[in-house]
Specification:
GO molecular function (chains A, B): oxidoreductase activity, acting on the CH-CH group of donors, NAD or NADP as acceptor
Number of strands of chain A: 15
Oligomer: homodimer
Largest sheet of chain A: 7 strands, mixed
Helix content of chain A: 10-25%
Keywords (chains A, B): Oxidoreductase
Order of helices and strands of chain A: EEEHHEEEEEHEHEHEHEHHEHEHE
Largest interface: A-B, 35 and 35 residues
Low-confidence stretches of chain A: none
Strand content of chain A: 25-35%
Pfam family, one (chains A, B): ADH_N_2
Protein name (chains A, B): Enoyl reductase (ER) domain-containing protein
Number of helices of chain A: 10
Chain lengths: 331, 331
């Protein structure tokens, strides 16, 4: 059986500046809903796509992630792979049967052909909406959990500052920190986001960095890390899971190393994948919090494969509130 | 009994740029070699002074150390306190007797009056030259030991890069790292220092950052941290005990945070004082290495209290090779 697959491709590398519509193209092609005989491949009908800023780094001809590690390779011009949730439409792989729900690396499209079923796992929704498995129970959640508990190793009563606090990871860091017993301050880029943090997510304090008068001279784009470091307490920890402003701008954060020394600050980069050993803890803690309504899944969902480029581009303008997800098809 | 005490004072704060002779003054004053009846004070005849770059931060009117912590307060214009070794000339304090050797905070002078004997400890030389207790067995040694073993938590066979590798701390980091079983690369600012690292201290590799052609465009002053981070392996650790170029220059290191994230690099500031819990280990390990001639005490000693300003100023020009010490008097 054959269907028409609509999918997004990347036309040119995005080496400088922000992504825009001209970098992407919606294509249409016939797509066979069967796998080659004897292969281990699977066909996935994509349901939800995780839209993540780090992907911009993979769209550079010289990818920082390629340079550094094998974790997330650069994207060849053409199709784009991304984390998401889908349903098996056809399988030559003994691990998967038709109609199984799966989570893992799919493509920015309506259907994905996954060679050998690589980087896919069967998904038990555990009674939660599938979108949760793209965001709060997916890598955004694990990033927040690993970054807060494993990288920062918090103590109750400590003060926690969260930048991009209404973003996919930041809002969860703040919620975990409150539930753990910390005093939590978040910053975000609009009045609406600030209200959300304080009124719906329980942040103790929040401010709009674009309007904060005291910090106005220093709190320009890309300088958040500097201001955070200069205001930190001794033995403070900075967990860095990404630095969105520097993905598209040559301007770099310049934390004061004298502060780092005298205040014995630790700045540590990490990737959620490093904390797979905490995955079971992360899942049981977060599912409990969800079931008892102690934590909120903040989602920002746009429908249709054709909306992927604008969803992605919007990340760099702070358009999203919470986890940005594109819904590709009805479940 | 009264003597003439020669001592160094600071005339003006040093808020910008490098220290020079005009910032300091050699003064002479009558000095009583007895303590007030009923006081806990002690009089110390100073023998050796540790000359340390971080002191410049205490000479600013707005001290970064004051801002951050209570560890090392700013210096009021006038006398200057510094780590050193001396001998008790008079004591009203039951902890000390005349002629006891002591180590701790004395002054940049020939004699020190130490209120209540604060920040002084009796010193057992353990059969080593007294200068060792200012450098390799003092805070320089503890900084190297704590920074390498406690902050970096090395594994045998790992690659270690040491900047300012012929300095008081750097040369010891390199030696500890070699003895521990790491591959050690050091950089320093002259051909002579590079030779010393390779030929006398056992570094596997060393280079002169002022002449390195490949790195010339980036390895200007203050950019060592950037280059180190961009060349680090995944999960690398950067232990920062000081950042001498930034003590006297507004220019700041700008490590690439994308590298920090993707390579999961940790940058951690520390002070030797944080690792007092390792002091017993540090002393037994280092004394063993010294007794078996596995480690070398690299010292750069200048005689006379009047040489303190030039010894201090020279630190910022890389004049010293190893631990800079001023010898004040014969033992």
């Amino acid at each position: 059986m054959e269907v028409t697959n609509r999918y997004i491709t990347i036309r040119t590398h995005i080496n400088h500046g922000e992504p825009n519509e001209s970098h992407f193209e919606l294509k249409t092609a016939a797509f066979g809903l069967s796998v080659e005989l004897g292969s281990n491949d699977v066909i996935v009908k994509n349901l939800y796509e995780s839209i993540d800023p780090y992907q911009i780094n993979r769209m550079k001809s010289y990818s920082p992630s390629q340079k550094a590690i094998n974790f997330a390779e650069g994207i060849a011009l053409g199709e784009i792979d991304a984390y998401g949730v889908g349903r098996i439409a056809a399988s030559g792989n003994p691990k998967f049967e038709k109609d199984d729900l799966v989570a893992g690396l799919i493509t920015w499209g309506e259907y994905s052909m996954i060679k050998d079923g690589n980087m896919l796992n069967k998904l038990d929704p555990l009674g939660f909406p599938l979108t949760y498995h793209v965001g709060i129970l997916g890598f955004s959640g694990l990033t927040a959990y690993g970054g807060f508990f494993e990288v920062c190793k918090p103590k109750k009563g400590e003060k926690v500052f969260v930048s991009a606090a209404s973003g996919s990871v930041g809002n969860l860091v703040g919620q975990y920190a409150k539930l753990f017993g910390c005093y939590v301050v978040g910053c975000a880029g609009s009045k609406k986001k600030v209200e959300l943090l304080k009124e719906q997510l329980g942040f103790d304090e929040a401010f709009n960095y674009k309007e904060e008068k005291d910090l106005k001279s220093t709190l320009k784009r890309g300088e958040m890390l500097e201001v955070a470091v200069s205001n930190m307490n001794t033995f403070g920890r900075v967990a860095v899971c990404g630095i969105i402003s520097e993905y598209t701008d040559e301007k770099r954060a310049v934390p004061d190393m004298l502060d780092v020394v005298y205040k014995r600050i630790t700045i540590r980069g990490f990737l959620a994948a490093d904390y797979m050993n905490t995955h079971a803890d992360f899942m049981s803690t977060t599912c409990d919090y969800l079931r008892t309504a102690k934590i909120k899944a903040l989602e920002d969902i746009t429908p249709g494969v054709e909306s992927i480029p604008s969803a992605f581009i919007g990340l760099f303008h702070g358009d999203n509130v919470g986890k940005k997800i594109v819904k590709i098809a009805n479940e």
